[in-house]
Amino acid sequence: MRRDVFQAISDPVRRKIIELVSNEVLTVNEVADKFEISRPAISKHIKILNECGIIQIHKKGRERYCQIEPKNLLPAFLWLEQYQKLWEEKLDSFEHYLMKLKNSKNG
């Protein structure tokens, strides 16, 4: 089954794994050590990330290393980017509203 990037980032544990391996290459055990859930559960999350192409697994001896493939996060970034202007406008509007309230209290 081929999964997509949106399935990968839909789970908070997988988002945390992405964050961890975006900073450094880690073994599956090193990733699992960062969580309070079972190693098999972490392995399942890593498998999903691998199926999505977000994490590549490299074997070296008995260890399996997780390495980020950031280009495969691009579809999610592009989808979210279209909403950036909307949120900036909403935040600017809210900021103007707060300034108006502050000025009316001081004035």
Characterization of this structure:
The structure is a single chain. With 107 residues, the protein is an alpha+beta fold. It has one domain (5-80): Arc Repressor Mutant, subunit A, CATH 1.10.10.10. The protein is 63% helix and 13% strand. It has helices at 5-9, 12-23, 28-33, 39-51, 74-81, 84-106, and strands at 26-27, 55-60, 63-68. A three-stranded antiparallel β-sheet has the order 1-3-2. A hairpin with a 2-residue loop joins strand 2 (55-60) and strand 3 (63-68). The relative contact order is 0.14.
Helix-strand layout with pairing:
Layout (H helix, E strand, L loop, with lengths): L4 H5 L2 H12 L2 E2 H6 L5 H13 L3 E6 L2 E6 L5 H8 L2 H23 L1
Antiparallel strand pairs: 1-3, 2-3
Helix pairs in contact: 2-4
| C-alpha Rg (nearest Å) | 20 Å
Number of domains: 1
Order of helices and strands: HHEHHEEHH
**Major sheet characteristics:** 3 strands, antiparallel
Individual helix count: 6
The number of strands is 3
In what order do the strands lie side by side in the largest sheet? 1-3-2
Low-pLDDT sequence parts: none
Q: What separation lies between the terminal Cα atoms?
A: 63 Å
Estimate what percentage of residues fall within beta strands: 5-15%
What is the typical, i.e. mean, pLDDT?
Answer: 90
The H-level CATH homologous superfamily, spelled out, is: Winged helix-like DNA-binding domain superfamily/Winged helix DNA-binding domain
Could you estimate the helical fraction of the residues in percent?
55-70%
- The assigned structural class equals alpha+beta
Which CATH-level-2 architecture? Orthogonal Bundle
The CATH class name reads Mainly Alpha
Q: CATH topology, anyone?
A: Arc Repressor Mutant, subunit A
